[in-house]
Design brief:
By secondary structure, the chain is of the alpha+beta class. Helices cover 44% and strands 14% of the residues. It has a single domain, classed as Glutaredoxin (3-Layer(aba) Sandwich). The chain is built from 6 helices and 4 strands, in the order βαβααααββα. It has a 4-stranded mixed sheet with strand order 2-1-3-4, with no helix packed on it.
Length: 113
């Protein structure tokens, strides 16, 4: 299982704590050290919608003034590839699933069920 995110993100920390508390092994891929490219993002988008993956509430979105661009889905994808901090965190690759964001109930059902 791969967990993508940054260590300073609250949602990523909750996910890490959940996995450690439940003795679930994972590999952390830190966006600040490893750039996630088009291959991963395109794969994720076969599993989840662009609106689920694209973080339009974060600081980076506001800093880049992306709201003013009225991005379509292709534009959002291009920005995700260019700027990984726009990816909603964490992103978890587990078996053939992609799970975005921290949701304890989803995690319990997926990883403990």
């Amino acid at each position: 299982m791969k967990l993508y995110g940054i260590k300073t993100c609250g949602s990523v920390r909750k996910a890490i704590k959940f996995f450690k508390d439940n003795n679930i092994e994972f590999e952390l891929i830190d966006f600040k050290k490893t750039v996630v490219g088009e291959k991963e993002i395109s794969y994720w988008l076969t599993k989840v919608s662009i609106d689920k993956l694209f973080n339009s509430k974060g600081t980076k979105y506001r800093t880049l003034k992306l709201k003013e661009l009225n991005l379509d889905d292709e534009g959002k994808k291009e920005w995700l590839i260019k700027e990984n901090m726009l990816i909603k965190r964490p992103v978890i690759e587990y078996k053939d699933q992609v799970i975005v964001a921290f949701d304890e109930e989803t995690y319990k059902a997926t990883f403990l069920g």
